[in-house]
Design a protein that fits this description.
Helix content is about 40%, strand content about 25%. The chain contains eight helices and 13 strands. The strands form three sheets. Strands 1, 4, 5, 6, 9, 10, 11, 12 and 13 form a nine-stranded mixed sheet that branches. Strands 2-3 form a two-stranded antiparallel sheet. A two-stranded antiparallel sheet has the order 7-8. α7 crosses α8. The longest helix has about 40 residues. The radius of gyration is 29 Å and the shape is elongated.
Length: about 325
């Protein structure tokens, strides 16, 4: 009998497909393979059956083991009819890349990852010289502009300004005193993150390629949407006295999950998903313990500081 998989795994979401369709396709394939697996042998129970008449003997009843027909697949129907598959950080229809799913107890792990405020990494493609209503290259064209004056140095100067502005926002929403040893240790370990909900924050941004009019960026961010990243491309074009549209948004990392962990469509099957869950189990646990442990310590520290600053309020509350 096939056991239901449980844990987290990543698939590669192609562009042009909604995240819910990807999730539903994975769930349908898992249910089909689980039901195609050989069923367990039916339970046996004792029934009293008519005995074959012996030579000159009177017919009677004899005990015999017989299968329980109520558990036969033709009577019971499919063994698995429902399977909860949860979706992690979502991708819109135009975006592609790493998409984390959870099955079984993996749905609880998805909630834990949500509270970790993990950093995601994207490669974002852009095209100078055009502007559209939705900031994408497929939107309605609203403006054209020249771009020959743009250089890599000018582009990187704008990216540095964006990163500096977002770094200040990150520190503000992280509730950490940057003059402490704790802040230094968190910065070294890359654990400075917002303590709760915040606007989209870019933690790092750099230019991977510039071949006018095309360019490609790598963006590290938290609490983002893919439309927000397209808007960033549009704003970069304006800052460079031109305009730009986004040609691609591709997530290459979601926490500890990378493109190497993402299962392609041909691998959306029971055995591949089981292997993926097993391969990522350890690093998922370490990620959650590391991040949630830091947040718990920060919360306790904030509570202690409040108690020192307002001892009367604490005593009244008690």
């Amino acid at each position: 009998m096939a056991a239901t998989p449980a844990g987290l795994f990543a698939v590669y979401k192609p562009p042009g497909v909604s995240w819910c369709r990807v999730r539903d396709t994975v769930r349908t394939r898992l249910l089909r393979e689980l039901n195609e697996a050989p069923p367990p042998p039916p339970r046996q129970r004792i029934r009293f059956l008519p005995a074959a008449p012996g030579a000159g003997g009177a017919p009677g009843l004899v005990p015999a083991w017989v299968p329980v027909l109520a558990e036969h697949p033709l009577v019971r129907g499919p063994r698995f009819t429902q399977l909860k598959v949860g979706a992690g950080h979502r991708l819109d229809v135009k975006a592609s890349g790493v998409f984390v799913l959870g099955v079984g107890h993996g749905n609880k792990l998805l909630t834990d990852r949500y509270h970790c405020h993990l950093t995601k990494v994207y490669t974002v493609g852009g095209l100078f010289g055009k502007a559209t209503e939705d900031f994408s290259d497929t939107g309605k064209l609203v403006e054209k502009a020249t771009f020959d004056h743009i250089t890599r140095e000018k582009l990187e100067r704008i990216l540095a300004v964006i990163q500096g502005t977002n770094h200040k926002a990150l520190l503000m929403h992280s509730n950490i005193d940057m003059k402490t040893q704790e802040a230094y240790e968190l910065a070294v370990n890359g654990l400075i993150r917002p303590m709760g909900k915040s606007p989209p924050i870019i933690t790092a941004i750099r230019c991977l390629q510039l071949a006018l009019p095309e360019f490609q960026l790598e963006i590290h961010c938290v609490h983002e949407t893919q439309q927000y990243l397209r808007k960033i491309v549009h704003e970069i074009g304006l800052e460079l006295k031109s305009c730009a549209v986004c040609t691609q948004v591709r997530r290459i990392r979601d926490g500890v999950f990378t493109l190497d962990d993402a299962l392609l469509r041909t691998q959306w099957n029971l055995q591949s998903i089981r292997n993926a869950i097993s391969d990522c189990q350890l690093k998922v646990r370490e990620e959650l313990e590391k991040t949630l442990g830091h947040q718990d310590k920060s919360v306790h520290k904030m509570a202690a500081e409040m108690a020192r600053e307002h001892p009367q309020a604490i005593s009244v509350a008690q």
